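Practice set, problem 2.
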Amino acid sequence: MNVKKFTAPTSREALRKVRESLGPDAVILSNRQADGGVEILALANDDAASLAMPAPHSPMAEPAPSLDLGTAVSQGGADQRHEPRLEQRMEPRFGSHTPTPTPAPAALPAQPVRRVVASASSFASVTKAAAAAPAPAQVQAKAALDVDQIAAMVSAAVASAKQNAAAEMQGMMSEIRAMRGMMETQLAEISWGTTQAREPQKAAVLREMLAAGFSASLARYLIEKLPANRDAADSLRWIKNVLTRNLQTMANEDALIEQGGVFALVGPTGVGKTTSTAKLAARCVMRHGPDKLALITTDAYRIGAHEQLRIYGKILGVMVHSVKDEADLRIALKELKNKHTVLIDTVGVSQRDQMVTEQVSMLQGAGSDVKRLLCLNATATQETLNEVVRAYQGSGLAGCIMTKLDEAAAIGNVLDVVIRQKLNLFYVSNGQRVPEDLHLADPAYLIDRAFKLKRDVVNTQYLDAELPLLMSNGQHEQAMREVHLG
């Protein structure tokens, strides 16, 4: 082996020297900067080939043909224990006959026989490495598991991001609605303040409507639609006419008494359902006789409730039937199908009780066309009456009866609910007498009475500075759009 060193100022010149001295197939061993120039160690191609071939008669050139699984040599010069070589183990099997070797061709040099020697420790390490290597199926299963885990993590991250985004969006929308409400309130307050200064008659009409018990939303809607160039008296007459036209009533009692059918009086406790049932029963008896009428009560909760209606039935000469559930009601109506009119006195249930839904379902599933009449207490507040109507609405009410008109200090609240909820007002009750204190509803009379029965002026009089704030809170409702102005 002849390693040569070449130096030159540049790498190009040094490589040229290597090619000139060792030929184009020279092997470059190193290349570094030295003393301001370049130093290259190179070797001829023939010398490099001789390094790759093992020396003759060396252990690498002549390996043992047998597999040696001997144990480690003990310390202190102990003899090594070897297994018999492959030739010795094969001799007993093939006998002492040795085959004649075939002479090699003269042109080819004799190739030495290579022997492979392996120790027990190397064999054990190879075996352990093979056992430790995972099987392809295990690798594929692990890869599939990793992919599933990654997919699950990505799905969880996406779901969390969507949930956070939805929560942020909901919070932002709530803030936007709050800002919108504040802006609408302030703008309405400014607008009404300007209107109040420019048209003082509207403020006077507004005070009249609020004192009569009408809601701020209905009052605001009508005031905004009020024709221009009218004084306070003309404006109030226009308001009364609009309210009268929008109060739906039963023009003739024949629509109920002559037509007949099954009617159920419903409503909360203490609104006068039993007394109103007795008044209607008396009118039917006077028109068609006791044989054409039947009374049914479902009130099995109040003590003496059934006896109260039974006493009325005994006075009128009408049989009173008591039912407990939908099955009994279905049987009773089937037995009374030949009657001209059937009146059902239901148990009073609070509008916030779950039994209201059960009662409505029982009447609708009775197998007959049961028309429900809602009893509205004129002394209740407007918010309470709205809750009652929403609770008992169901699939639709046939009409309503205004009760305790004689006890109410103002009736604008109940008329407001009837107008906005588009209910058909059949009767008004103003006392306990049967059947005298039950009258057909007269829209003009009720509206005029509402403005005459104004509350105490000292308690309900609003200041001019309070009206803009009150009108800004009176937001429009969907029902206001159906109020006919004429």
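Problem 2, part (b): a different protein.
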Amino acid sequence: MSTLDTEAPEPATGAPDERSRRRTGRRHRPSDRKADRQTGRRTDRRRARRTDRHRSRTDGRVPLGRRFRRDRTLLLMTVPALVLVVVFHYVPILGNVVAFQDYDPYVSTNGVTAMLESPWVGLAQFERVFADPSFWHAVENTFVLFLLQLVLFFPVPIGLALLVNSVLRPRVRAVVQAVLYLPHFFSWVLVITVFQQILGGAGIIAQTLRQHGYEGFDLMTDPAVFKFLVTAEGIWKDAGWGVIVFLAALAAVNQDLYEAAAMDGAGRWRRMWHVTLPALRPVIALLLVLRVGDALTVGFEQLLLQRDAVGPGAAEVLDTFVWWTGLRSQDFSYAAAAGLIKGVVGLVLVLSANKAAHLMGEQGVYRK
């Protein structure tokens, strides 16, 4: 018989070999099916983790649970500050209910009981506030002071930051920063005393003029220049402290941009205009929004200390108005209504300024 006629024997149909039988039997065991399901679930979890990592790399977002685990130490450190904010800022908001009452603190020795037992008057307190000429005079003084501080005060920290940043020697820069920061830690009593010793009727300048035959002056009691005086006091005290934020923004500017601009022939002023100021623009927009939202708060302690020297006509603002009517006159519901109006207007100003920042392409306080 030839080899061409010899054929390999074929396995019988319906009689699988031993290897196939073992494989088929293993596939149908219940324990193996359970293991396969567990393996599938582990595979799905690994695939989901890979998907989350890929998503976090592509769009910059990290899952919330992972962020909590990563930042749990920092979150625990913020708990005391959060408790203080809640206790001293959010809980007192409940006291605004007295703006809708004829609140009498002498009804009970417990303040909460006094609020519950005081009669409701609805919007009567707000009608009194809007009909009071003294309230509108305080609003006028407040906005005038805000505009002066916005125009004269707000640009000063930016200019000081640019000057300090241009100092090359680290020791000189440290000394300049310390001198600028120091007045921030002075109390308003000390600041006003310093200005009184310089610009008051018995101050150094007035005495020197009298000694040379000239007439002295007393700017500390002159209502005509009082608003400019208050702005100058604020600049001397807090302008250096405001430099910190702008210096931090300048430290993040890539130095290669300055080198590239210098190689293109840009001088010092061109580099400042095209490199430095654009880097400060987001910070300027953020601080401007916050300053506009704080427009109705122009310095309570500073103005209260000088109120008697120039009179309420020049020094009365919303904060001193609320304090005078609420504590000195003990008209608590009326003062609460005026304070609530101030808070609502401040919120509207913040939202409006933030919207304007978004329209100019800046982030503002929060993103769109």
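Answer key, part (b): Residues 30-59 form the longest helix (30 residues). The chain is about 70% helix and 0% strand.
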